[in-house]
Automatic annotation (TrEMBL):
Belongs to the iron/ascorbate-dependent oxidoreductase family. The lineage of its organism: Eukaryota, Fungi, Dikarya, Basidiomycota, Agaricomycotina. Keywords: Iron, Metal-binding, Oxidoreductase. Residues 206-310 form the Fe2OG dioxygenase domain. This is Fe2OG dioxygenase domain-containing protein. InterPro entries: DIOX_N, IPNS-like_FE2OG_OXY, IPNS-like_sf, Oxoglu/Fe-dep_dioxygenase_dom. It comes from Naematelia encephala. Transmembrane segments: none annotated. The keyword Metal-binding applies.
């Protein structure tokens, strides 16, 4: 196993330009009803004391079943090392040339991937309403061939690659050990049987995103939404906690709440694959990106994320050898697991993991698309709540707006 302390290549190697540091924006002073997330110290996974590990597994179990998300700390990257990665993300977004924006432009409708550069006019290749959100996304093709990466960031690819290797092989691996233990399975179960491998992010991807303030027009059309409510499709998503308050999580009490800023921490989102593999014992995190509080309305939000993915050729089914599932059966609530079960029961083959993630990316709806983002479009009233209802490969998806 790789070391559990990140040891990146130096920032001042010959040939690397010296670049301006990222300065974290000022925090909100508003008294917000933040989500209360549990925090775990990831370094305790390696403790020699079985009681310590067991306690950690119990906290994780509670967080994952009740909340569907948690914060992790002490995972082996210092605050300074993390801020260096934000510095690189900022540099990419401020310096990507117009030629590279065009040459590396994403094409999600065709590829089912976010690979490449996302322009700030919505989530389709064709420009629609300006949303101020730019991204660069690295998939296996971008890691394998740096001609697919913006020229300005090439001198720093050693640091970005090392960061991603550390996140997948150390951080994500330790989280999957913990989650395998919650299912009472061998500790490498999820890593060996579910997680995709190869390259720094397997079949998953890494993102540098920049959210610039919305225009009045975009705000009106989108009703404050930057990203619609959704679940991620894969195994775990590592979302680095950021000072600009925009990420929201749907609580058990069916209320959207902002996620507070915890410097250096990672918000761990559980993807739909893990909801299905766990027979519903892990709940895929319902989350969205919303407008920030008024005192941050003009702030720029930089976000770096690693999306970990399951093996694309697999069709996910519950790990019924899990003693937890054998003892307690499946959990039953509205979500991917229940919908996959319904589809199977009706005799339609469930999609492969690749089909499942690619169709959802290809068919992402812009938040400013008022024809779709309304009752009579994709929105319905469901048990007294406004929900987004769609169907992919015979599976119904119902998510809070
Ligand atoms: O930037 C963020 O905080 C979240 C983005 C997100 O949820 C996603 O891309 O799936
Ligand atoms: Fe997400």
């Amino acid at each position: 196993m790789t070391s559990n302390k990140f040891n990146p290549p130096a920032a001042d190697l010959p040939g690397k330009p010296s670049i301006p540091d990222w300065v974290p924006p000022a925090l909100t002073k508003e008294k917000l009803d933040f989500a209360k997330l549990r925090t775990i110290d990831l370094s305790l996974v390696e403790s020699d004391d079985p009681k310590v590990v067991d306690e950690l597994v119990q906290i994780t179990k509670k967080a994952i079943r009740e909340d569907g998300f948690l914060f992790i700390e002490n995972y082996g990257v210092s605050l300074e090392q993390l801020h260096r990665q934000f510095t690189l993300a900022q540099y990419l977004h401020y310096n990507i040339s117009e030629e590279d924006q065009e040459r590396l432009l994403f094409h999600p409708e065709i590829s089912g991937k976010w690979a490449g550069y996302k322009h700030p006019w919505g989530f389709k290749r064709e420009r629609k309403v300006w949303d101020g959100i730019t991204q660069f996304n690295w998939y296996s093709e971008e890691w394998a061939d740096y001609s697919r990466v913006p020229t300005c960031i090439l001198p720093f690819m050693d640091e970005i690659r090392a960061f991603n290797e550390f996140l997948s092989e150390s951080v994500n691996r330790r989280i999957l050990i913990l989650l395998s233990k919650v299912l009472e399975l061998p500790e490498n179960y999820l890593w060996d049987k579910v997680q995709s491998h190869g390259g720094p992010t397997g079949e998953g991807y890494y993102r540098h995103a920049l959210f610039r303030p919305f225009t009045e027009e975009a705000e009106k059309l989108s009703k404050g939404l930057r990203f619609n409510g959704h679940c991620d499709y894969g195994t775990t998503t590592l979302l680095f906690s950021v000072p600009v308050t925009q990420l929201q999580i749907w609580g058990q009490d069916e209320v959207w709440r902002y996620v507070p800023y915890k410097p250096g921490a990672i918000v761990i989102n559980i993807g739909e694959t893990l909801e299905i593999v766990s027979g519903g014992h892990f709940k895929a995190t319902r989350h969205r990106v919303f407008k920030p509080p008024m005192d941050q309305i003009n702030a720029e939000r930089l976000s770096i994320v690693q999306f970990n993915s399951s093996v694309g050729d697999l069709r996910m089914t519950p790990a019924i050898e899990s003693p937890l599932i054998q003892r307690e059966g499946f959990a039953d609530y509205q979500g991917a697991f229940r919908e996959f079960q319904k589809t199977m029961a009706s005799g339609i083959p469930i999609p492969t993991n690749r089909q499942w993630r690619e169709i959802q990316i290809a068919e992402t709806v812009n938040t400013t698309d008022v024809k779709r983002q309304t009752i009579g479009g994709d929105w319905v009233m469901h048990d007294g709540k406004l929900m987004n209802k769609r169907e992919f490969h015979g599976v119904t998806v119902i998510l809070p707006v």
